[in-house]
Design brief:
The protein is an all-alpha fold and 210 residues long. The protein has one domain: Alpha Horseshoe (Serine Threonine Protein Phosphatase 5, Tetratricopeptide repeat). The chain contains nine helices and no strands. The chain has helices spanning 6-22, 24-34, 39-56, 62-76, 80-95, 104-122, 132-144, 150-169, 191-209. Helix 3 (39-56) crosses helix 4 (62-76), helix 4 (62-76) runs antiparallel to helix 5 (80-95) and helix 5 (80-95) packs antiparallel against helix 6 (104-122).
């Protein structure tokens, strides 16, 4: 696979939804340790709405579809994580809305903007035990592999996201309810960083297995 088109992104959203649905209870368990326990519920709502919108959309430009999905996610899941992911999709989609085919460079730009505006909206940086700690390494890996085939780039991104998730487990939470736990948050897996790995995994499953 050398590039992604509109139907590829619809399949990717489906793959992410499958992963979120499969791990709904696990996400809830992670969130119940240092949050309000609703992460699994809000993420399943978010990606159910995104998949429904993608399925009925007649949009031909991937970036415009991704922007639209961000708007749908924001409405379906107006939680903290829902808002951050919605922002990522909207800003990432906007950055590539002029392209009908998405290759390594365009996919990299999508994820770079996805993460950049999550950091801006969430007022966070790497190392704060958030979704950024899995998605930023993935975006950086894509940039390093931008001259390689999509399969190579997304495989590197997946590996980087998983390493980022592992590293974030030993970080101290700085944002949201989890920040109340301070040192007690060290050693506990972050729900947001976990969701970040599922998003990357959805792309990986489609690109590599197709």
């Amino acid at each position: 696979m050398t590039e992604l088109r509109i139907d590829d992104f619809k399949s990717i959203i489906h793959q992410v939804k499958i992963l979120i649905d499969l791990h709904r209870e696990f996400l809830g368990e992670l969130d119940s340790i240092m949050g309000d326990g609703d992460l699994g519920f809000t993420m399943t709502k978010a990606f159910a709405a995104a998949e429904e919108e993608a399925g009925k959309s007649e949009e031909k430009i991937p970036g415009k579809l991704l922007l639209r999905l961000g708007m749908v996610i924001a409405k379906a899941s107006p939680s903290t994580m829902g808002t951050l992911i919605a922002t990522g999709f909207m800003k990432g989609g906007k950055a590539i809305e002029q392209y009908e085919q998405i290759g390594p460079e365009e996919l990299t730009v999508f994820f770079e903007n996805f993460v950049k505006f999550i950091m801006e909206r969430g007022k966070t940086v790497p190392g704060n035990k958030t979704i950024v700690d899995s998605l930023l390494p993935a975006a950086q890996a894509l940039r390093l592999a931008v001259n390689e085939p999509l399969v190579t780039g997304i495989t590197s991104a997946r590996d980087a996201a998983l390493k980022g998730l592992t590293a974030s487990t030993m970080m101290k939470a700085q944002h949201g309810r989890a920040a109340y736990y301070q040192d007690n948050s060290i050693g506990k897996q972050d729900g947001g960083a976990t969701v970040g790995t599922y998003i990357i995994e959805g792309f990986y499953r489609h690109i590599v297995k197709e």
